[in-house]
Amino acid sequence: MPEIDVSEKEKQFYVDIPAKNEPFFLKGSNNLDWGMKNRLSKIFNPKSGKTVMLAIDHGYFQGPTTGLERVDVTILPLLEHCDTLMLTRGIMRSIIPPTFAKGIVLRASGGPSVLNELSNEQIAIDIDEAIRLNVAAMAVQVFIGGTFETQSVHNMTRLVDLGNRYGIPVLGVTAVGKDMGRDAKYMRLASRIIAELGVSYVKTYYVPEDFDTVVASCPVPIVIAGGKKLSELDALTMAYNAIQDGAAGVDMGRNIFQSDAPVAMIKALRKVVHDGEKPKSAYDFFLTEKNKAQ
Length: 294
Ligand code: 5RP
Prior knowledge:
This protein is α/β, with parallel strands linked by helices and 294 residues long. It contains twelve helices and ten strands.
């Protein structure tokens, strides 16, 4: 039996204050369920609406990638500076401390190695496992124009169905193969197809020309991949331009963990993504942080 409410204080119903009914902060996400929105809030910072995702899942098809040979040594010091971590369940269980309380984006597709046709992926995880690992989202590679295009699209739609059942968002990754385009026309096509088929957000590559049209024609948030290692100034400039064009953040790997000063780099990147800091000023900050650490 609950105790009877015997307080002598007068009840307050605040009848003159309308109930709050604020829209969710992410583009195209207002009609999602509570659990889905809660998980997305572990990926995107509700204040800035942006994210710095640290991508370290490269080993799922290319083995011990440069900078990721020893995740325990090189990546653990970066965790306090990212908003979200994108990785495989193998690295998660073996190396990442369960006290890591930020969002995890779990690599959920895989199959072929770099020695084979990369688009021949399948779903590489059971939904029960994603729930058990308490992930914030599942990531699937989609090869628009690739040899196994339809199979990869079906991987995505199956994961979207499973994710919707349990409130777990799906990140659709536009995979750009060797012979596929890297211009706004291709990115618009791939991102829009991925969004139309139900993902919560899309990861794509930044293209210098007309990237704002890629963002505008995609109904859900877009984050950019970093791609191959650039100079720190160039990588910060790319992130800045993407944010100015409407991207909701970065999902960056090599340009962080292959930097000479990865902690300084991710801290500088945060300034660009969350505070809109200009590339040159973020780069000066990078140099100062790098020198402090030496
Ligand atoms: C692998 C991925 C990677 O997570 C992605 O490419 C991000 O890493 P990088 O910034 O090094 O490109 O999706 O397919």
